[in-house]
TrEMBL record:
Cellular compartments annotated: Cell membrane
Full protein name: Sugar ABC transporter permease
Region described as Disordered: spans on this chain: 1-31
Highest taxon of the lineage: Bacteria
Stretches that traverse the bilayer: 38-57, 99-122, 134-153, 179-202, 240-260, 287-311
Species assigned in the record: Microbispora siamensis
Lineage: Bacteria, Bacillati, Actinomycetota, Actinomycetes, Streptosporangiales
Length: 318
């Protein structure tokens, strides 16, 4: 009976000796788990800091500055005076109407690179050459693009000469208020759709080829393949291209507008971006320009959220 008792005490002592070792072993494990949980935040922190310092903080300062005055009232709070002035400015109304025109033309600006990317993905004859040619305009400066199309679209330019050869009268592409905005938007789409084309091609790399093979076996036409297979599979890519294309139209057309029309004729090609530059650089009214910038930011935010919401609903219905 003594041996079992002794052996039991020895076992108890052994158990007590193992306890501290196990506790010491769990400490590094808990530290490692804590470090693992903190690692994503540490990696994201520099990017968040850059966004806050270079994006959000200047945005807050700009919004605050939009409630101050210009000229003699520089730095003096004026409440909503700048926004009320924008609401009464016909030129700003024109720029907002042109934003509505851009929204209406946006599906066309997205469909063009989408269809071209589809043809390249399906390996139509010469698809390698087309890929290089289509992307080439994206590397050109807007100033160069504007200068080239000023020559081509001039009243006595080669395009009107070609139209005259087939019996069509000359068109004032850049001087007619009714068509000048369409002309500039068309040039912008031509100059920038190469980037959207690359995004679509990247999206095609994630496409399940077995779906295309099954559609072909079932005898689906090209239109049916695009509508029922490709578009539902690239919903997220299409959402991204829609939003980035809209942002580009609202914030990256200044160079073309400045070179091709300078906001004319009769202010018909004004966009909020060009209006902001005019108020800041020509009229020396930075507070009013800040108010217009704030309105532009809100417009971009609302349009972007509406686009994402509509595209998500469409994707769910499909």
């Amino acid at each position: 009976m003594v041996r079992p008792a002794g052996s039991g005490r020895a076992g108890g002592e052994t158990t007590k000796q193992r306890g501290p070792r196990e506790g010491a072993a769990t400490r590094p494990a808990s530290r490692g788990a804590r470090a693992e949980r903190l690692a994503p935040y540490v990696l994201v922190a520099p990017a968040v800091l850059i966004i806050v310092l270079l994006r959000l903080w200047p945005l807050v300062l700009g919004v605050n500055f939009s409630f101050t005055g210009d000229g003699e009232l520089n730095g003096t709070p004026v409440g909503l005076s700048n926004y009320l002035e924008l609401a009464a400015d016909p030129l700003f109304h024109t720029s907002l109407r042109n934003v509505g025109l851009l929204v209406l033309l946006l599906p066309v600006a997205v469909a063009i690179p989408g269809l071209l990317a589809t043809f390249i993905y399906l390996r139509v004859p010469g698809h390698r050459v087309y890929r290089s040619v289509y992307f080439f305009p994206a590397v050109l400066s807007p100033v160069i693009v504007g200068a080239i199309f000023n020559l081509m679209l001039g009243f006595d330019g080669p395009l009107n000469a070609a139209l005259g050869a087939i019996g069509v009268g000359p068109v004032d592409w850049l001087g007619d208020p009714g068509i000048s905005m369409f002309t500039v938007v068309g040039v912008h789409v031509w100059a920038t759709f190469g980037m959207a084309l690359v995004v679509f091609l990247a999206g095609f790399s994630t496409l399940d080829t077995s779906l295309l093979d099954a559609a072909r076996v079932d005898g689906a036409s090209l239109r049916q393949v695009i509508w029922h297979v490709i578009i539902p599979s690239l919903t997220r890519t299409i959402q991204f291209v829609f939003v980035t294309t809209m942002i580009g139209m609202l914030t990256s057309m200044f160079g073309l507008l400045f070179v091709m029309t300078s906001g004319g004729p009769e202010g018909s090609t004004y966009l909020p971006e060009y209006y902001i530059w005019h108020q800041q650089g020509q009229m020396n009214r930075p507070a009013l320009a800040s108010a217009a910038s704030t309105v532009l930011f809100v417009v971009m935010l609302v349009v972007g959220l509406l686009q994402i919401t509509l595209l998500r609903r469409t994707g769910r219905q499909d």
